[in-house]
Amino acid sequence: MVDHVVILAGGTGTRLWPASLRSRPKQFMDPGNGRTLIESTLRRAVATGAPGELVVVTHVDQVAALGRYGGIDALPKTPVVIAEPQAKNTAPAVALAISYLSRDDALRAADETVLVLASDHVIAPDEAFVSDVERADQLAREGRLVTFGITPTRPETGYGYILAGEQTGPGRVVDAFKEKPDAITAQRYLDDGGYLWNSGMFVFRIGTMADELQRLVPEVMEPISELPWDSGTLDASTSGDLRIGTAGDSWAIAGTYLRLPNVSLDRAVMEKSGCAAVVEAGFRWNDVGSWDEMAKLHEDGLLADGAAPAGPHGAAAELVLVEAEGNFVFSDLPVALCGVEGLCVVVKNGRVLVTKRERTQLVKKVVDRLENRGRGDLV
Fold first, then answer.
1. Which of 98, 116, 328, 350 sits at a 20 to 30 Å CA gap from 375?
2. 351 and 210 in one domain?
3. Same domain for 222 and 365?
């Protein structure tokens, strides 16, 4: 099994506006099954049986939300929280986590393995996920940087792709990472059969990743590796009943982050490293990157293992459908739909969104326009 689990929880989730707001972004929202996305992710991390540390890297402004919405008091171990002063993408966040994990004995830590998870994905069942993590751990201990590939079910243009190569142990060598394709290219990838969706989750030895970060992006790894970890702060959650400790010297981290580039781990390391491998996932996965993806979660029953039932038409206080087909509703208030098809209707936080399901990627533009109008208070 992996030694440690790191959860990246600093995203803003603007594509799920208005349920996801900057004050309470996507990872802290309940998708309709009675648990927040990050609460489910923390439970999944514990399910791996990792004996070491559980680390959450999040934005400093989201520490209190983690205490309120993370379900931390129900976990068998308390996560260590590292607060980023700025969002600089996944490469600095991962570098920060492995610097912390190496703080006491870098030589010992170099041989330990880490599972990196996004805080806002939906995965089921956990048993299949844990089994695949064990396979990835085997590859990681052989010096591979491992990611999880999802078998495509449609010509998806919203995900990056992985071209899988020859077999290596319980996985395959990565021949290439591909950027999000256009519709024609996505169909070709699907027809070819050798491509997988890139899930953005990783398993690696700390030493292997640290070496590759130092070799490929020293401007990230060098300043982070010099950070002190012998002090921390304590922040109170807005619920008032849970206090979250954050690791490290916040002033030192803030000063270091001013000098760091904004770069993803895929772009900085995985696409350039000769060590990349992929495990083809046996679990079902959704990154909940749009309202249409949220609708598919409900239709496919991927939220059925939560604390509350999730219906195929969405989650609403009361839903009345009259000659209405193929719609998805996510609402705090009663909603009635009459004579309409293929709509996504969201009523949350005193805001209303109505869009065609196939056009839900346009929500990001709504957020941009509101901000350009000086209405950042609405996002």
1. 328
2. no
3. no
- Residues 77-112: pLDDT tens digits? 999 999 999 999 999 999 999 999 999 888 788 999
Q: Tokens 């109505």 label which residue?
A: 354
pLDDT at residue 310 in the model = 54
**Last residue within a domain, chosen from 288, 305, 334:** 288
Nearest one of 132, 192, 125 to 162, comparing CA atoms: 192
In this structure, the answer to whether residues 360 and 232 fall within a common structural domain is no
E strand or H helix at 314, and its extent? strand 314-316
Q: Which amino acid is at 15?
A: R
Q: Verify that 207 and 134 share a domain, yes or no.
A: yes
Phi then psi for residue 197, to 5 deg, are: -70, 140
Has residue 339 been placed in a domain? Answer: yes
Residue at 295 is within a domain: no
The residue count for the chain = 379
pLDDT at 285: 95
Handedness of CA 285, 291, 294, 299 (dihedral sign): negative
325 and 262 in a common domain: no
Domain boundary among 224, 253, 288: 288
Residue 36 lies in a domain: yes
Give the pLDDT score at 244: 72
Q: What is the pTM of this model?
A: 0.92
Whether residue 252 sits in one domain with residue 115: yes
What three-state secondary structure class fits 330?
strand
Residue partners of 271: CB distance under 8 A and separation at least 6? 177
Q: Of 6, 13, 18, 17, give the one whose Cα is nearest residue 42.
A: 6
pLDDT at residue 311 greater than cutoff 70: no
Domain that holds residue 339: 313-378
Long-range contacts from 207-210, C-beta under 8 angstroms, 24+ separation:
207/109, 207/110, 207/111, 208/140, 208/143, 208/144, 208/145, 208/275, 209/94, 209/98, 209/114, 209/145, 209/269, 210/98, 210/102, 210/110
Structure confidence at residue 274 (pLDDT) = 94
